[in-house]
Every structure is written in C-alpha cells, then in structure tokens.
Amino acid sequence: MRNTAKLTTAVLAAGALTLGLTACGSGAADTASDTSGPLVVAASPTPHAEILTFVKDNLARKAGLDLEVKEFTDYVLPNTATEDGSVDANYFQNQPYLDDFNKKQGTHIVPVVTVHLEPLGLYSDKVKSKDDLKTGATVAVPNDTVNEARALKLLDAAGIITLKGGADNAATPADIAENPKKLKFKELEAAQTPRSLEDVDAAVINGNYAIEADLSPADDALAVEPAKDNPNGNFLAVKEGNEDDPRVKKLAKLLTSPEVKKFIEEKWSNGSVTPSF
C-alpha cells in the first residue's frame, strides 16, 4: 500500500517564504542534515514518487533505510524545500533545469545519481500526424526556461520549425529561424499542458504529465524526444554538502539497482519512462 504524503503548492507556500527570508545569509554549508531520522524525499507524483514508493515498500527496510516520500505538484517547491531543509532530498528534475534554477534562485542543489528519462512528446487531440498541423496552428509549450527550450528543440528535430544556430537551453520562440506553418505558441505551466489539448492544436508535454494524462509516447505522440545521448535524465538531488549523508548514499544505490530497473521497464513498457543506468 502506498504510504506517501501529498503536498500542494498552497500547503508548502510557507516553506518557500521561509527560504526567501533566510536565503540572503545562507550558503551551501550552512545547514547539515540530521541523519538520525527518516530520509524525507520530495518528488513529483508520477513517476518519481511511484519509483520511490517501490523502493520504500520492497527494498528500503532490508537496506536499513527509513524512507519518507512527499509528493509535490510543481517544479519549484521541491528545490526550495530541499534548500531550506524542509526535506532532505528531491527527485523530479534534470540537469539543465537545475542549473537554471540554481542560477536564478541562488539555491545550492546538486545531483547525486541519475535514475531515468521521461521523453518529451508532442501530442494532439486535433490531428493524427505532425504533418497535419495547419498553418497558424497553436502549440502549447511549457513556460519554464529549460523545458520551453527543450520543447522547441523537439519541434526543431521533428522538422516542424528551425531554430537559429546556437540556440541553447534558454531558447524561446524568439530563437526560431524558420516557422513555415506560422505556428503560434501558447506558453503554459508544464502541469497545464495536458489540459490544454482541448483548446490548442497540439501541445508539447513533459513525460510525467503525459503519464498522468494517460498519454503514451509510443502510441499517442506525434513526435518524441530521442533517448540516446539525452541530457535530460532525472536524478536524486540534495543540498550541496549533504551528498555524503549515509541515508542518501543508500537511496542512490537502491534507485540504481536491478530491481528498480526491472520495475521501471515493466511498469512503463510503452517507453514513457526509461532507466538511465
């Protein structure tokens, strides 16, 4: 039985405020985790919390790890909660997103071990092929810096648009060199992109939100991000200085175990989640 605590943005707003009040005087080494209690890990509900719950229910006790999973429904609070010590670690993000977040928020979060990839996909309720997108069609994309750039790179790789040379992980629609279908872009919070399918012609959706919306990259996507040499693997992360916490090391080992690899491959056999180890 799942034993996770689901937290919403509203419930955790106080934690974010605490970070804002204390961040000016805090550095990477200012806080040290209490390693005597359970390891509290913030995670997106799908697939991160599901993977952690598998570890908790099947592997953690034998490894001597007391693991607590807290579900967060956005991409901001897991990092701020890790920074201010409300949780010990998080598992929801990739390196380009973390680099951008640390730079903008002044946080000190670092990766520990990469676990899986959720390929980004282009989905539509209106057309069956990317070639069927009409001139002037509206495409929803995530509005956070890194995922928007990742979405545009997917559209570029699919031959739908062409980005300017040198477009990086901060690319926006302003970096489009060629847009033959004169597509319009609707920038939305990543979690809202699946719900936008009724209102737009297509949407680029992050893998975890696609899973929650019962969308399969293999069966439903008009275009899918390639898995090979992909820098967007999702990892376990902690505040800098806590990498050697023995509880973190135990979890890192369990998350990259043969048992977890088998669990991921069997549960998401449609390719919506793939092991990165």
From TrEMBL:
Keywords: Lipoprotein, Membrane, Palmitate, Signal. Residues 1-28 form the signal peptide. It is found in: Membrane. Gene3D superfamilies: Periplasmic binding protein-like II. InterPro entries: Lipoprotein_NlpA. Its main location: membrane. It holds the Pfam family Lipoprotein_9. It is a lipid-anchor. Belongs to the nlpA lipoprotein family. PANTHER family: D-METHIONINE-BINDING LIPOPROTEIN METQ, METHIONINE-BINDING LIPOPROTEIN METQ. This is Lipoprotein. It comes from Streptomyces ossamyceticus. The lineage of its organism: Bacteria, Bacillati, Actinomycetota, Actinomycetes, Kitasatosporales.
